[in-house]
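Lecture 7 notes: from sequence to structure.

We start with a single chain of 250 residues. Read the sequence below before looking at the structure.
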Amino acid sequence: MSVNSQKIFHMLSCSTWSEYTVVNSNYVVKFDPRLQLEHASLLSCGYTTGFGGSWKEAKIEKGSSVAVFGLGAVGLGAVEGARIMGASKIIGVDLNEWKKEKGVVFGMTDFINPAKSDKPLIDLIKEITAGMGVDYCFECTGSPPLLNQAIESSKIGKGVTILIGTTLQTSNTINPFELLFGRTIKGSAFGGIKTQSDFPVIIEKTINKELKLDALVTHEVQLDDINRALNEITKQPNCLKVIIQMSKGV
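Now the structure, written as tokens:
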């Protein structure tokens, strides 16, 4: 995409910083006016991708065990989706201890910080699951080395690994031996969410306070302070989502 021969830099063709945007009607959803604008701004790629991964892609069964690698907005969405679906054990994995508190809010039952143990991550997960591994593992970090660990953390014969995290690396080596034991791996685009049919359901759950979206917001700034938000706040370890108020009182 370019204008006057100059390349336009944008993320996934969204161009959400533009003043005007032309959008295909299939991707436009009129939301309930009861929905707060702050919450509406969070129901995009990020939290919803993780939530959909648990709800639509994995279709987690009640009583299942789940592990989520990476507790950013995507990972916390996967945690909450697992909780909504009735998972009995939800293990969050992150190097940031601050994420433990957030994970509990969204439904996490166990937390692992791999940096605090000499044991391999796979062993730590199996210790929590009586040596079995989990039914579903969500890789939300985009770190290539973690993909094989996610696969091996799932149960032999039935474990499913959902790949959600993205990376600029275009190739990765997967250990096929682990897949021969009946494990499977599945990719996920926007958590399998369908704009017209699924968004109204998520919006209704948000209005009914079934989803903990308020806990995602860690900072709020005015538009005039956007540079500070990008340069300072988003680099802090306790930053999840930043609400940008376009003008005071909005």
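The first strand starts at residue 2 and ends at 3. Keep this in mind for problem set 3.
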